[in-house]
């Protein structure tokens, strides 16, 4: 959907950090998120004036600065040499498991990951640190696809809310989502989060099967099914800290261009096309 016209935003250069704006036809409210790769992003529902993005950032400026500082540290870690990213062990907190990492040279092309007792063994050309990281990420993907659906089925059975199907993907900014048809999508990096937070995410998406938006009825039902939902929701704001740097490989499709707002400039033009951004 196209939108025309211009919006003039008075931006306090010394107050607000740069931020990007994305339009989402699925969004029902203004959202702020901070990611390692995208920085501060404001998601606007279609039809909301661009000036509201600046207002939202102003209202939560301290929160934004704190999270931008934290992601700057993670960005530095991601910029490290692949050898520096290889862990000594891999913890899958949701399952209460820690796998020690072992490297075994073999004539095989590439690198593969396999279990050997309590160890996760990488075999092949293990002198290639980047290939080792790729093997670790593939193992993470397989593990998430195989095991997270079983946990979702358990949560579904416990709360009495069914769903159509489940997929496990590599979303940028969502831990989970639920479509209008009751299909649930889970983020593969949930395997690194504590179990109580993963169960909260899954229950949150299951409640969306009955209540498709964040209405009062949604929050009421969620609180009934999960008395600790409020505290879990607060914890989820910093959940990205559980994801190890090696798991953050840029193996996803590039996101469509977005408008980056620099607080040193005061005039901004309304985005002309509605984008799609996960909530």
Set down the secondary structure blueprint.
Layout: E1 6-8, E2 19-24, E3 31-35, E4 39-45, H1 51-59, H2 61-78, H3 82-85, E5 89-92, E6 97-105, E7 111-116, E8 119-124, H4 129-159, E9 165-169, E10 176-178, E11 183-187, H5 195-210, H6 216-225, H7 229-236, E12 259-261, E13 267-269
Description:
It is a single chain. This protein is of the alpha/beta class. Helices cover 34% and strands 23% of the residues. The strands form four sheets. A four-stranded mixed sheet has the order 3-4-2-12. Helix 4 crosses helix 5 (195-210) and helix 5 (195-210) crosses helix 6. The chain is globular, with a radius of gyration of 21 Å. It starts with 5 loop residues before the first strand and ends in a 10-residue tail after the last strand. The model is unreliable at 1-14 and 251-279 (pLDDT under 50).
Helix percentage: 25-40%
Distance between the termini: 19 Å
Provide mean pLDDT, rounded: 82
The poorly predicted ranges are 1-14, 251-279
What gyration radius follows from the Cα positions, in whole Å? Answer: 21 Å
Main β-sheet description: 4 strands, mixed
- Order of strands across the widest beta sheet? 3-4-2-12
- Report the count of strand segments: 13
Alpha plus pi helix count: 7
């Amino acid at each position: 959907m196209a939108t025309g016209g211009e919006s003039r935003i008075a931006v306090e250069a010394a107050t607000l950090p740069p931020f990007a704006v994305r339009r989402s036809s699925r969004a029902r409210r203004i959202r702020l998120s901070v990611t390692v790769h995208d920085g501060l992003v404001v998601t606007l529902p279609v039809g909301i004036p661009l000036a509201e993005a600046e207002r939202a950032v102003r209202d939560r400026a301290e929160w934004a600065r704190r999270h931008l500082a934290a992601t700057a540290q993670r960005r530095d870690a991601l910029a490290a040499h692949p050898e520096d990213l290889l862990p000594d062990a891999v913890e899958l907190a949701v399952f209460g498991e820690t796998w020690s990492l072992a490297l075994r040279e073999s004539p095989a092309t590439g690198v593969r990951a396999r279990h050997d007792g309590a160890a996760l063994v990488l075999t092949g050309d293990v002198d290639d640190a980047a290939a080792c990281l790729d093997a670790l990420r593939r193992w993470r993907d397989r593990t998430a696809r195989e095991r997270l659906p079983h946990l979702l089925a358990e949560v579904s059975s416990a709360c009495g809310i069914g769903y159509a199907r489940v997929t496990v993907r590599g979303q940028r900014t969502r831990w989970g989502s639920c479509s209008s048809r009751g299909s649930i999508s889970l983020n593969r990096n949930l395997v690194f989060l504590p179990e109580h937070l993963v169960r909260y995410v899954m229950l949150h998406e299951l409640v969306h099967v009955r209540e498709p938006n964040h209405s009062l009825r949604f929050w009421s039902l969620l609180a009934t099914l999960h008395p600790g939902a409020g505290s879990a929701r607060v914890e989820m704001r910093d959940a990205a800290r559980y994801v190890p740097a090696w798991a953050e490989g840029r193996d996803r499709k590039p996101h469509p261009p977005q408008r980056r707002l620099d607080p040193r400039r005061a005039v901004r033009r309304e985005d002309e096309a509605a984008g799609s951004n996960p909530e």
